[in-house]
Amino acid sequence: xxxxxxxxxxxxxxxxxxxxxxxxxxxxxxxxxxxxxxxxxxxxxxxxxxxxxxxxxxxxxxxxxxxxxxxxxxxxxxxxxxxxxxxxxxxxxxxxxxxxxxxxxxxxxxxxxxxxxxxxxxxxxxxxxxxxxxxxxxxxxxxxxxxxxxxxxxxxxxxxxxxxxxxxxxxxxxxx
Length: 176
Ligand code: IMP
Ligand code: MG
Prior knowledge:
- The protein is built from three helices and nine strands; from the N terminus they run βαβαβββαββββ.
- The protein has 176 residues and is α/β, with parallel strands linked by helices.
- The two termini are 17 Å apart.
- Residues 41, 44, 99-100 line the site of magnesium ion.
């Protein structure tokens, strides 16, 4: 059993659903007439991507990557590796990277650069939660669900040591 319990609800399930619908509407409008690849970053994206994909009203395909970053504890170091590559051919395709949360920005900045090798037509980034105050690198985010100043968040795909991903809302994990 996990030792710490998430206490404070930061984003309620209904609030998330409303915002996901708005993001899907924006993406569908911006990419109308195209068939983007929704490229989820495992594992954290799994719930967000499945809700988002079902609200998008244009044709879309789905693929996944997995990254590992060598950080200490809950901070990433920027030394990133792709442990699962995309399986679809991204060449000439519009790609929407779907990520649960961006903190320092180092993982996504690395991914965006790395994806250029696949020669996509365009790369957009869609994140559910943006911890903007913690950014260490300039990174343009095209779609942002929520801005949250700080704190370690769990639920709706976000984990702490693999726990709490299945919670329907987003909660702050208090460690004291
Ligand atoms: P970044 O490279 O610092 O932006 O790290 C982003 C990654 O760290 C995310 O994809 C998450 O996997 C993880 N992460 C950062 N903040 C949190 C959090 O508050 N809760 C859970 N995971 C987090
Ligand atoms: Mg992640």
